[in-house]
Amino acid sequence: MWPFGKKKPPTSPAEALVFKSGEAFFEYQCKFGHTTLEKDKGIVGLILDARRHFGTQIAVKLQDDRQVAAVRVASDDGGFVVLAQTPNNGDPLQPGDLVVWVPQTYMSELGNALPDKRAGWVGLILYKIAPELGSELRVLSRYF
To answer: Domain segments of the chain: what residues?
Structure first.
């Protein structure tokens, strides 16, 4: 209803809503983005510094032909943490990077052993994305 109709989402990169940081974009996704855990349906995640969260020697581990990282996955309650990997090495991941994490399998043994049952989901990091919101997410790197 005029003049209070819904604003259309940006449709071009020039019209994209650019966030000040990956953390700001992540918080927005927790409040307004897709946060439902479904097999093979990607959710925005934020790469964490594993040194601070788990006491490891490095922030993101390079292992053979892939990277292993701690990821805070967007959820209605501000996110939950999983360990995830990329299918291949690709562009190096750093703490603060935004990614699309795709849950693939729920391991009940793992979920039941952890305080947050959602951490039992095992999935892959398939994309690194920009902290921008337009008609589509802007992909910076693909890991497949």
So the answer is: 20-142
